Amino acid sequence: MVNPVALGSSAFFVLAAVSRLYAAPIDLAHWAGALPTHFSVHGVKTEPTYQEAVDIRREGDLFTLIGGAPGWAERSQQSVTVSPDGALRYALCPKGMTCGGAPTGFLATATLLSALRRGQLHGSAATATFGGREIVCVPGERIGIARPLFDPCFDVVTGATLAQRHRLTGQFDGPSFDAASVRIAYK
Amino acid sequence: MTLSRYPNRRQFGALILAAAGALPAGLRPALAAGKLKVALLTPSLTNDGSFNQAAADAVKKLAADGLITVEIREKMADPAASEPTIRQYASKGYDLIIGHGIELSEPILKVAADFPKVHFAASGGPDLAGKLTANVDGWTYDFGQQGYLDGFVAGKLKGLATIGMVGGPQLPFIQASHNGFRAGVKDAGSSAKLIETYTGSFDDAQKAAEATRGLIEEGAKLVWTSGDGIGNGVAAAAANAGQATLGVTGDAGGLAKKVNVASVVLDMYPTFKAYVDDIAAGAFGKKFFVSGLGNKGLVLTKVNDVNGLVPADLQKEVDVLVAQIASGAKTLPNFFQ
């Protein structure tokens, strides 16, 4: 005869394991509205021939990206602000850069906040793990990215854009940190 | 111990050990064991098919050649983790400690100062050359030559009247790669029209896709990209239009094998082999290695004949070019200028 206590215990552990693999979807608007207003992320992005040091910051409504080159070379800095009504405006666009449209890549958090403030962030998305951190990958169209190749994946705790999931392969690709390199601070 | 004129195996071993004892401390473990003890630290996982794996493949090949024993430590991007690890290897008698990646440069330089008998290798940019010491070598690679070989290949492809070029931001090292590409096309004897776009972003694959679509509409049947981070977009747009790419690195969502002719990638073996040879020769230290075409630190990936563009003798032509550069029969300019 099966011991009901043992059975219940086993079921609990199975359910716990399953819930880790398939985390419950989170409500995007509720989640994005409660994110901390300040974060900084440092990490590297690996390319076949070099590594690029990448820093991203959120300071209230200002989002900044510093990167674009091997760590030793001149890096570019790009900043974008999100107004209370969700309008995006580039505050800093360095020489050689073209700034316009909704930012994708590492600045996708600004686009996420813009969609939230415009009242266009709806629905839910499942969480996943990235280097031991919980992330949520949001279909690009939901935050206004047209014909997306990638879906941006945000750190659940801070909202920082840590990775992009390729539409064709489901792999983290493109503007994505090396998971092992990510260091995050927030308040 | 008395030795005969022809020492037996045991006496020969004793001689070797005695001789090793007279050598500088840094060389003793190497000769006693017959192989250099090497530690490789990488910022990320070495199965990335990319920058980290290039280093791991090189030390594994040296180990397979019987020249070294090696221990690889991954996920060493954080100096708080890497510095004590480097110090530990230095204390344990390792002969050569390689920090592969910019995040490891400062920890390597810091620990190296405390272990003058141990050999260290750091990577970085041109500014690293001025920081090297008697027990530290440095490494970087030539962005311009990477573009040059891509350009040479593009110039040899069949039937191209227009070639597109897509870059990220117009930063000096990217422009050097583009300068190299233009020179390579010209040296290959091509008169193709070159049309160029900078997306202005190093990671915006969406913009790269739009730029590629534009170049294809202008007649480009081949689009080269200098940007690893935007290659996904270039490959996606080229695949949709049925055209070819050059320089797309990585898998690009499975599209690279369909559209990309070839890429120029790193081979770390020549550099790491030079470290080992220099240690054996007592010539290690304060050298700055630059991976390029002549020393085979930059190599062409396997060529993929997309849309029938590739001539049968392409690889042979590339081999001749590389041999000419290696011998000094052909010199390349500094494409940063």
Order of helices and strands of chain B: HHEHEHEHEEHEHEHEHEHEHEEH
Low-confidence stretches of chain B: 1-32
User: Any idea how many domains of chain B?
Assistant: 2
Largest interface: which pair? A-B, 50 and 56 residues
Topology:
The complex is a heterodimer of chains A (187) and B (337).
Chain A: H1 4-21, E1 26-27, H2 28-33, E2 38-46, E3 51-59, E4 62-67, E5 76-82, E6 88-92, H3 108-117, E7 124-125, E8 127-130, E9 133-137, E10 150-155, E11 161-166, E12 172-173, E13 183-186
Antiparallel strand pairs in A: 1-7, 2-3, 2-13, 3-4, 4-5, 5-6, 8-9, 9-10, 10-11, 11-12
Chain B: H1 9-21, H2 28-33, E1 36-41, H3 51-64, E2 68-73, H4 79-91, E3 96-99, H5 105-112, E4 119-123, E5 136-141, H6 143-156, E6 162-167, H7 172-187, E7 193-198, H8 205-217, E8 222-225, H9 231-241, E9 244-246, H10 256-259, E10 264-266, H11 269-281, E11 288-291, E12 298-300, H12 314-327
Parallel strand pairs in B: 1-2, 1-3, 3-4, 4-5, 5-11, 6-7, 6-8, 8-9
Antiparallel strand pairs in B: 10-12
